[in-house]
Every structure is written in C-alpha cells, then in structure tokens.
Amino acid sequence: MIAWLIAQATTTSAPAVTEMTAMGWVFMITSITSVTILVSFCYFKVLTRPSTVEHMHAPLDIDTRDQGT
Q: DSSP class of residue 8?
C-alpha cells in the first residue's frame, strides 16, 4: 500500500492550471473588503477610545471605616 502511494506521488503530472470564475473574483473581493473594513473599524474604536482619567465618577473621599481597627 505504501509503495503504491509513493509510486503515485512520484508519477503524477503537474496540476492543471484553471482560472477563477467571475463569481470567484466577486466572492474574494467582497470577503477581503469586508474583513478589511471590520478590522479598520475595530482599530479605530480601540485607538480613539477616550482615556480612563476622563471617566472617573467615584468620589474623591471614600470612607472605608477602617481607621479605628
């Protein structure tokens, strides 16, 4: 069995060259464009996020009541 597989692998010719169909091109371009737009949107949202200092809503004086213990 293994000898037959090796013989088949060494005697096969080069694969036939086929061209992509129009629907193949449309699908590929649509896929690449969609992924590029999604990645760009995500990078934009992450990199333009306001800093956390501007969103602090906690009071400055928090009474933890642990000074007497």
A: H
